[in-house]
Amino acid sequence: MTWTAGERYGIGPAPGGLALVQDLLNTVGAGRPRERDLLADLVLADEWATAAMDAWSAGSGITVEPRGLAEDDVARLRDLRADLRSCMGASTASSREVLRTLTASVALHRDGRVVLAPRGEGWRPLATAVLLEIAAAQQVDSWRRLKLCRNTRCAVAFFDRSKNCSGVWHDVRVCGNAVNLRASRARRGALANGRAADGDGAVVEP
């Protein structure tokens, strides 16, 4: 399966269907040089959505009838992405208790399996699949391992595979070292000016 958004940042996909959620989060423009926002316009968004749903369908075995996106669908996907980032701690702008309500069909198969499948048109099947995968990940306690890189200039979504779930950088060598270097320079500059700096390098006024 190919997850086109995350591959731009050299990110390994999250396990199973959680990779779809990760890929939506990674449609943002980030990195150096900065990659394009894949939800910036209809053409880019439709290409990404088609590839993402193909990859999800291949992994889940659930076929969703392909439908092209409209301009309003792209805006809705950007809103969903923002809502998810808010839930993950990147923002506290929204105070709504329920951010999204979508629909799925429940099907009983001949072999006894009960399958939830996305319903709707435009942006809705993809968004429903995203929420279904988050719910599934929460059931097995893997949702907390999908994180946003602590480097605010990056904020790429990564799956934390550390034993104690303590990872904070999508790549320690790229983002961890860069942030630590900026913090070190800030501390040295603050000391030179007779001020203190906190652990992240932010200057603390006396």
UniProtKB/TrEMBL annotation:
Pfam families: zf-CGNR. Residues 145-188 form the Zinc finger CGNR domain. InterPro entries: ABATE, ABATE_dom_sf, Znf_CGNR. It comes from the Bacteria. Transmembrane segments: none annotated. PANTHER family: BLL6575 PROTEIN. This is CGNR zinc finger domain-containing protein. It comes from Pseudonocardia benzenivorans.
